[in-house]
Every structure is written in C-alpha cells, then in structure tokens.
Amino acid sequence: MSDAVAWLAAIAAGCMIFITNAYLDLDVAPTLFYITLVFMSANFFPVPVFLAVALGCVAILTATFIADAGYRDHRLIAGFVRCLIALTTITLLALRSKRATNTLRRKEAFFLGAQKLSHTGSVGFTINDEVIVSWSDEASRIFEYPLDETPTLAMVRGRTHPDDLAIFDSVLEQAARQQSLIEVEHRLVMPDGRIKYVQMIANPLFKNGRRIEYVGALMDVTASRQSEEALFHSQAQLAHVTRVTSMGELAASIAHEINQPLAAVITSGESCKRWINRPEPNLEEARRSLDRIIQNSARVSDVIACIRALSRQSEVQRKAEAFDDIVSDSLTLMQHDIGNHQVRPHSQLDAPGAHIKGDRIQLQQVIINLIINACQAMANVHDRTRTLRIQTSVQDNEAVLEIADSGTGIDQDILPSLFDPFFTTKPTGLGMGLSICRSIIEFHGGRIWVSSTVGVGTQFLFAIPLTTLRHDE
Known about the structure:
alpha+beta; 4 domains
C-alpha cells in the first residue's frame, strides 16, 4: 500500500514539474520540484531507484536547459549551474541520510531481535517533579502489559512482588540521589499468580539540575533462577545420600561415641547405689555420681541428635553458628575413626569468637569428608608418624579451616581436577565427595582449595565469610 502511494506521489510531482516547465516562466520552481521529488524518492524507494530518480531529474533539468537555448545567456547559465549544484548537493545529502537511516533500521531490527531472544528489555525513567517511565516492547512483554499501553510508575509497582516493594522503593531513592549505577534483582507477580525474577541495571543518561534521566536494561532471569533452584535441590539430595554413606563408614566410631558415655552412666549409677547403701549413706558422693550420670546422658543425647541430623534429609537452614563448635563436634564424631587409622590428631582451634552464617549439618559433612580423606591418604605411610593437623583461624574477615595430613601427597597435574564431579583417585570411589564439598562451601559464599607436596602431605583449606552475631541469635 505504501509503495502505491509513493508511486502516485511521484507521478503527481512529475506532472507538476512538466506543467511548470511548459506553462510557467519560472527558473527556480522546477528545481524545487526536482528537490521535492528527490526527497520523496529517498523516503520511499530503495537506493538504486532513488539514484535513478535523482539522475533522471538532473537529466531533465539539463535537457530543458539545452532545449530552451539557455546556454546563449550567461545569466541563465549561472542560474542553471546553481540549480544543478543545489540538486546534486541535495541528492548527496539525501543519499547519506538514507544510508544512515537504513543502517539505523537494520541495527534496530537486530537490537529488537536480540532483546526478544534474550528476554531483555530497555527501560528508561526520568526523575523530576514526577517520575516518567518508558520501556521497549520486550520490557512490556516481561511485565505482560499490552504493547500499546503507556507505561507508568503505578503499573511497575503493581507488578512488583509485595515482599520486594522495599527494593522497588530503593531504586527510586538511588535515582533521587543521582547514583551513577543502579543494579537490583526482584520478583514480579503476574495476574495469574506466576512469579518472575528480573534483573535491572541502569545508568544516568542526562542530568540537568534536579532532573535526571536513566536508561537501562531489564532482563527476565526466571528460567535461570528456576534452574539454579532445581540444581540446588539435586545437590542437596546428593549430599544427603553421601552423608548416609559416610554414616555407614563411621558406624564403629558412632558406636564408640555412644558406648563410652553409656558405660560411664552405668559405672556412675552403680557407684551412686553403693554410696547410698552404706550404713551411713554418703549423700555428697551420691550427688556427684548423679551429676556424672546427667553429664554423660547429655553427651549421649548430643551424639544421637548429631547423628539423626546428619542422616535426616531436611531443608537447608542458614543461621549464625560458632565456627569452632562446628569443627569440635565433627572431631568428636571422628575420634574413634581417627584412632582406628592409627593417626595422631593435633587440633588447634584459634577462632573462638568467630561466627559464620550457614547450615551446621552441611558444614560438618564437609569437615568429616575431609578428615576421612586425610586418614585414608595416610593408610600406606609406615616410615613416619601419621599426623593429622586441624587448625582454625580468622583471616581477612573469614573463618578458615585447614586439614593437613602427612600422607604421600598428590601429583600437581591431578590437583586441578580434584573437585570435578566423578573424578576420583580411589579404586572404589564415586568421585562426588569433594565436588559436593565445593558446592556446599560455595553455597555458603566461601571458597575451598588444596595444596600438596608429593611425599610430604596434603592440605585442604576452606574459608567462609564471618557474620555479625545479633542479640536475638
């Protein structure tokens, strides 16, 4: 339809030029019509047709000049040259503009296509006496509003998850302060109840006193967040399976940790009975025996609670925990297993006031796994003492644990692959232990690494950021 209109407009312009040349004695009017025709063709036709129209106009102008014998008058020659220069200049400018417009349209098409494929929209908001919002079609699709509806701040707020309204308000506060970079992630609630996760990053484009205009990108990251959540649940299930497997390997150690205080309970009970059955009952000694019974019973209860927690598949709970207590409880469970491997442990807990925010059970799983690996690494050491060094410390606002053995060490070419899934140096290993350890530590915002010297031993270390202990925790 637009092409037909363009052709009709071009024919009408051509007729007007012909009538002007034939019946009117004007020097400038034909040139103005030629310029108009050139501009029209630049807007409606592709470059080859446009150039053909422009050359045709120059040819008609020249032919008319020759047919009218204008070359006999120097004034007409000067006028013809001026018209020719003007028409040529306008043609070149129109050609440059058309090419720039074509390039811009091509880039816009790529840009819109990329936005649609990547689910990334453009957003803009101007802060002055009021907030004016604008967005691209893809941003409108993300918010699920009609494309022809003018965006407003109320529309954006209406889609924001109620629990994330504080984040929405913080964006406006940052913009009012004219912050140089605004970056947030929050949730949207669709009319049918679906939850979307979006990320926005914006920079100021224009500042003029109190008026500031921001332009940014809005990305729908719902699929990514759902994938991360599914991966996390899968890792949690795999970690649970690994914990249960480790519990089987630690059966002897667990039995020892339970039997030892139970035996003490029986001994203390018999002692209490003897102190009471004496001709003159010694109530003070009987009371001390009862205290020992209570202490050892509490110890059994703690060990059983720890075992139940390790074997139970539960949701991850991140809360403030004393770092040294987590390490100490793990060592308690591993004491008998360490003795069975004829390993001499040296523990040095130098982070008594350090608290981290994490899941106690998962972190104990990491520590137990590293201790088991260290003990197994020293199984073939017979020419020196099998030493296991366990040390905690605080470095650069992080709680650090080092578990070092005096085993045979690990080759340098193997070290980079130790934390890869399914990589193992054990004949019967699954190769998932250290991979799970890394996932757990990274989930806690930490890092884990290893160093080793062949023939000397291996050191595993992990660090977790410290947290501030609140009064209500």
